Amino acid sequence: MLSKAKKKFQMPKWMDCSWRRVPCGKNTCAICGRIAADRRRHIQVGENPDDPEMMFRDVSRNLRETLEMIKKDAARMGIDITNLDDAQEPPEPEAFPFYRKVAAWHKQLSALISGAEMGGDLWLATEAGADVVWYKNTLLAKVYRQLSTRWEKKQGMDYGEEDLVYTARVLKEVVAILKRSLYEVSRVESSQRGGLFLSLVNLGKIEEKIFKL
Question: Where are the domains of the chain?
Answer without folding.
Answer: 1-86, 87-213
